[in-house]
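Lab notebook, bench 4. The sequencing result for the construct came back, and we need a structural model before the next group meeting so we can plan mutations. Quick request posted to the team channel:

Model the 3D structure of this chain.
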Amino acid sequence: MDDRRSRAQAAAIRWVVLVVALLLLMVGAGYAASGRAVARGAGSPGVFTVTKEAVNCGRCVVEGTFKPDDPAEPALTGAQVMGRLPVRVLGDQARAVGHDGKVYPPDGGGAAQRGLGIAAGGLAGLLLWLRLAVRARRRRRSASLAG
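Done. Here's the predicted structure in token form:
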């Protein structure tokens, strides 16, 4: 019974590692692709204005309104900044680029690099999962040969 419980716990851990790794890989790849597209000129230039500031929180995300330079394009309200844009306080404005419903600094703001880092974490998680799965298979094989 105790052996069955430990095997079930090990299997649950492997599943969690797999799901988290795949999630990190997909999110990171999407973030990197959008950041790279903006860095290569994709998106609509405009002005971002802070409407919700990050107070006493160094890593909090500010929200605001993005108004494109082209009046034919719709403004984005409640938009989040996906790169390092130098705005923090309510009413701050900065030049930005709107792309796929998000706002980026004109040069991409390092979003592609951060996305690649997140994806690399997902890849590391997949390698960990693979190692755990191989180890579990070897244990099962040796147990069946011994039994």
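The helical segments are 2-39, 111-146.
Will bring this to the meeting.
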